[in-house]
Design goal:
alpha+beta; OB fold (Dihydrolipoamide Acetyltransferase, E2P); 2 domains; five-stranded mixed barrel; 24% helix
Length: 143
Amino acid sequence: MAPPKRNRRLVVFFGCAVLAIAGVILLITALRSNTQFFHSPSAVTRADFIPKSEIFRIGGMVVPGTLKSESGTHHSFSVADFEAEPDDKPLSVQYSGVLPDLFGEGEGVVVSGSLDGRGAFVADKVLAKHDNEYVPKLPQNGT
């Protein structure tokens, strides 16, 4: 027969192990539902593209000459790969909202959203990217 202290220690050890396993399972389940996959525009425009989740992210460069704004808050533009090949097709993006200050044609962008039935990407969020040399504009009055 084992001493009572030893039995108590085993129960506490296995109880902590069960709680730790349950915590890890809950964490993995929560992270899985909030995961957004990142794709390139050329991968999304391929005929055999199947998204792994309904909402995903795309990163690339805004194609110069494609930005069109209607009524100030509805925007459409095309995004191409950062290092596009000649046969890569840009992806058409639709966005309703205010664009970030650093957003512009020929600049890097990350958009988050989903594909519509016509193959256009409907963005929920637009994030402008900049290089490590970014310096914000100084105020005009010097303050």
